[in-house]
Design brief:
The mean pLDDT is 94. This protein is of the alpha+beta class and 332 residues long. The protein is elongated, with a radius of gyration of 22 Å. Helix content is 39%, strand content 17%. It has two domains: 6-116, Orthogonal Bundle (Arc Repressor Mutant, subunit A), CATH 1.10.10; 128-326, no CATH class. 40% of the residues are buried. It contains 15 helices and 14 strands.
């Protein structure tokens, strides 16, 4: 058996062994000497400089370059800044695609990976992880008056609770280009906002601007997605069903990559006129207009509780009903 290349070892380090394309993506970002430094992480600039026989100043410059490329993350320790490599394939995807030096050839290779290798890796992740890392947040305006939406499932509350907010381009739509949905709509809050502002990959915005982005995304038929826990969310992605890293493989293969919200779409049969707008907007084919009754009907097994169907209903005939206990969202 031949020895693995440095780039294959980097692919192993982010848990995608055997990939053909991830080593090629690493090779577009770093040369072999730089790959050796990445493989030696985590570490401080001083210790890495000693290991590789260079000056701490030069090593610090190299690590800062890696940081701006999205290859490493910083951790502030009492003894200085410690650098670690991106932890997994998702961090590698999200961080490096936003690097200012990434070009169309880099994006296209990523998209080939997403269409050829990613579905199998995602299925493997599903088999070993008890719950998806992300979950749907419902559209606030579609909640029925009888239901109390909690702070951790309200995109607006997540925005209101954070002082630092940034917006970044959607990495998925940057590479896939399968729809004309808005691109600069991924919201970062707290530490994630600080990270993207420091890298220059995110634009700092105020709360009003963030709320406007939420409305624009809802009207465009995008779904709010955040971290699958009840506190300390770092982002609100606004996802489509065609370009997203998670949604297409859920739709095509049934791979559980995102948890639903705690809500279910409900149709007021008296108000519904059977226009089909909701059917056209549902990414998961969870709502259809019944041929006989000409009334929209919801498939509870397919509905993700996003509320996208409600936003453009001309008769305001759709609302969201709470169907899962608040404990459905993990505490951590």
């Amino acid at each position: 058996m031949s020895e693995k290349s440095l780039y294959e070892q980097l692919a192993d380090k982010i848990m995608v062994p055997g990939s053909k394309l991830i080593p090629e993506l690493f090779a577009m970002l770093v040369n072999e000497d730089e790959a050796r430094i990445l493989l030696a992480l985590p570490g401080f600039a001083t210790e890495l400089a000693e290991k590789f026989g260079t000056s701490p100043k030069d090593m610090e410059a190299k690590l800062k370059d890696f940081f701006h490329k999205g290859l490493v993350f910083k951790s502030i320790k009492p003894e200085g800044v410690k650098y670690r490599m991106c932890r997994d394939i998702v961090q590698f995807h999200d961080a490096t695609i936003l690097w200012s030096g990434a070009g169309r050839d880099y994006f296209d290779k990523w998209q080939i990976f997403m269409e050829t290798e990613w579905p199998a890796y995602a299925k493997m992740v599903e088999s070993v992880v008890p719950r998806p890392f992300t979950r749907i947040i419902p559209v606030d305006r579609s909640i029925t008056p009888r239901t109390r939406i909690l702070a951790f499932e309200s995109a607006r509350e997540v925005i209101e609770q954070n002082d630092t907010i940034a917006v970044t381009p959607c990495t998925c739509r940057l590479i896939a280009r399968k729809c004309d949905s808005p691109v600069e709509v991924c919201l970062q809050v707290g530490k994630a906002a600080d990270y993207n502002i420091e890298r220059g990959t995110g634009r700092k915005i105020n709360k009003d601007e963030a709320l406007e982005i939420l409305v624009k995304s809802e009207e465009a038929g995008l779904m709010h997605v955040t971290m699958n826990r009840s506190h300390d969310m770092h982002f609100i992605c606004n996802c489509c069903g065609c370009c997203c890293i998670a949604m297409p493989i859920m739709i095509e293969y049934g791979t559980k990559m995102v948890d639903p919200s705690r809500f279910l779409a409900v149709v007021d049969a008296d108000a519904c006129q059977g226009c089909g707008t909701c059917e056209d907007r549902c990414w998961f084919s969870a709502i259809i207009v019944d041929v006989d009754s000409a009334i929209a009907v919801v498939d509870a097994e397919k509905c993700m509780g996003c509320g996208v169907c409600q936003v453009s209903c001309p008769e305001e005939a759709i609302s969201l009903k709470e169907v899962r206990q608040k404990e459905f969202v993990p505490a951590a």
